[in-house]
Amino acid sequence: MTTIATTTPTTTPLISTLTLSSSEDEDKPVATTTETGEKKKKKRNRNKKKVANPPVAPSTLTQTTPTPTIPIDTLYPTKNFPEGQLIDYAPQRKNFILENLAEKKAMEKLVEENYQDLRRAAEAHRQTRQHIQRWIQPGQTMTQICEELETTARKLINESGLDAGLAFPTGCSLNHVAAHYTPNAGDTTVLGVDDVCKIDFGTHVNGRIIDCAFTHTFNPRYDPLLKAVQEATETGIREAGIDVRLCDIGASIQEVMESYEVELDGKNYQVKAIRNLNGHSIDQYRIHAGKTVPIVKGGEQSSRMEEGEVYAIETFGSTGKGHVHDDMETSHYMKNFTTTTPLSSLRSPKSKQLLSVINTNFSTLAFCRRWLDRLGQQKYLLSLKDLCDKGIVDAYPPLCDQKGCFTAQYEHTIILRPTCKEVVSRGGDY
Predict the structure, then answer these.
(1) pTM of the model
(2) Domain 115-322+404-429 class?
(3) Fewest C-beta atoms under 10 Å: which of 69, 77, 137, 166?
């Protein structure tokens, strides 16, 4: 989920199995022979070298139907969920880890349960988004898309109150809208063949949140825009690490993203990093834990990443001004994490009742009006405004660049483990 700073998928088979990769096994050439017995190793090796540092695709057990429905904790009854992509830290840090390996492994063992919660949430995210990438088509309403995604994710995460479920509303922002749009009741917006749609959704287990997003298009003319943003996100992941300055990550992201251009209708546009959007640290039941990961140079010089932290590395690119503002009807809301206002301080019985519903069903996780409708809440807008006016709940309107431009987003969740960096949301799609 995006936060403001003051934040063409590949087609996969209907039923696919990804195998947990081993870098040693992947690097071995597969020797085949011709009818004359001549081995053909060199051609395979040359092809392998064309892909620089390919992502490691986590293991995905096979679902029995084209639409995934089996909960992840059922697929993995031992509760040993697949790791994400594992990346070594920079050499200096790696040497320090090797010198203290027993201690670092012991530290990881203490929080292994947290890692497993994140990995279960990540596997639910992977299988949900890959289903949506196959399923989504022009002509569908944005409500249909969100409901299909959320229904699938709820089944896969095995939704159970605040113990497991969706971490925030499905963002499906179109074109110049960069983030925080999901349809409210009565919204009849239809996905068009020339639209650029950002799919941003989250899953959680015991409040351990996976925040991960991609951009979906049907017209290949947007490919350079998507590539710029995806490469920028990969740059942020590569540069992230223990004791790394956040401002340095932002400078690297901007340099990569703004090296791209996209041609639209005969005019060239430099892809601009949206300077007032950013990535962020994540904590339990808290989508933004206080640190921001800029996507442009500048910013605070002293803030650094620390061992054990979880981050959403997300980047946004635009063919417009590269700056977003609040616009359109609000759909996203979230209880203020630091609020101390008790129910008894509210005068309105309806506001008290609504806050009780929010506390019970969402706590400090984000929600949307569609989800209140789903819970049977009616005529709640004045009460919701009252909670916002009192600072108990915060509203997050859609974030928009100038009309007529196009924006794209890619995002992954990473864990700065004591021994390595884990891109826990990595999948075979991106």
Answers:
(1) 0.87
(2) alpha beta
(3) 77
Domain ranges of the chain: 115-322+404-429, 330-396
Annotated binding site: 180, 200, 211, 280, 288, 314, 411
Q: In Å, what is the CA distance from 317 to each residue of 191, 274, 371, 389?
A: 20, 6, 29, 33
What is the full per-residue pLDDT of the chain (430 aa) written as tens digits? 766 544 433 333 322 333 333 333 333 333 333 333 443 433 333 333 333 444 555 666 778 788 999 999 999 999 999 999 999 999 999 999 999 999 999 999 999 999 999 999 999 999 999 999 999 999 999 999 999 999 999 999 999 999 999 999 999 999 999 999 999 999 999 999 999 999 999 999 999 999 999 999 999 999 999 999 999 999 999 999 999 999 999 999 999 999 999 999 999 999 999 999 999 999 999 999 999 999 999 988 999 999 999 999 999 999 999 999 999 999 999 999 998 888 888 999 999 999 999 999 999 999 999 999 999 999 999 999 999 999 999 999 999 999 999 999 999 999 999 999 999 999 999 9
Provide CATH code, domain 330-396. 1.10.10.10
- Annotated binding residues for a divalent metal cation, written as ranges, equal 200, 211, 280, 314, 411
